[in-house]
Amino acid sequence: MDDLTQIAFDAAPIGLVLTEDRIIRACNATFVQMSGHTADALVGQSFRLFYDSDAEFRQVRDIGLDALRRDGAYCDERMLRRADGTTIWCRFRARSLTPDTPLARMVLSFAPIADAPAGPSLTPRERDVLTWLARGMTSKEIAKALGLSPRTVEDVRARLLRKFDVPNAARLLARLSRSG
Fold first, then answer.
1. pTM of the shown model
2. How far apart are CA 76 and CA 15, in angstroms?
């Protein structure tokens, strides 16, 4: 990479990451700052670093695979777990450079929806449910994806609504979109 390209990469206003088979090969200064890790601690690491469990890591992998195979691109909103354990709500975009094997080489971007997480801290289960809610899934669909009962998902949704003092999931997502 020439000097100007490197400067542009590092100074981009969104977090940029180049991955190979979900291993970080390069990331810019913005992503380093967003994640709370050092660049040296990120390069060569699996994206597993950002998930609470192997199961969550596998589930997230599969979410956009069909779109990546079909279109070479995928986007959604998701939580990024930082080095200190806090999370930041991000707009996530992925573009595969190898459409036949989408995860072999990808460029990812992470744009914070707000600069800092707002509201109460979330449990791993609340974060899981919130991530699936942001994708427009129903409680039954979330339950199936997470291997839970629909009642458990409803309980978690109710707890999220109380924590954020909102009347419904749409308001919850809107609040997180506006305030992080």
1. 0.68
2. 15
